[in-house]
Amino acid sequence: MATYRTYKPRLRIDFNYSCGYCKANEPEIGGAKNSFQIDHYQPKKEFPELINNYENLIYACRACNQYKGDYWPTPFESLLQKIILNPRVDNLEKHIDLRNFEWMAKTLRGKWNILKLRLASEPHITRRKDRAKIQQMIKKLLDKIPTFQKEILDLETKGDILNCQKLRQEYEEHLEDINTLKRKIEGPME
Hints:
The protein is mainly alpha-helical. It is built from nine helices and four strands; from the N terminus they run ααββαααββαααα. Strand 3 and strand 4 (104-105) form a beta hairpin.
């Protein structure tokens, strides 16, 4: 029987290398090894039978996992909507407006999650702003690709091999710049 720790590689992929709660990506907060953990949505203490149940496991950053801890709502807390959103089941955008850097609640449950998990904290806001800046830089670089391609084709048509080679080199460097920026905000990071 597999233990929950063996699921971490699969969880990383299923959660797109980001925290199920705050959506921070691995490269943004230091990688998978030290910055991400496996959270038991239904805590191990109260639900020991679910300790190795894959559907109960959430890929979470260290901060969110710490803030959530072993929380599980009492019946009274459930009535007050003090329920952690389950990234596997709940539509986050139904409860929280994600369009701005400082996430805003749409529902009582969303408001409580923002407070409990500190989703509108300064580090989260700064990270989202940084991500947006990098995404804008990537977009600007991507927008230049058709111009590069057209100029290379024009030089090839004219038979200007020397300038064509220079432009191809510049184009390759341009693509590498895009990939370098993407690695800062996307995908796996050990």
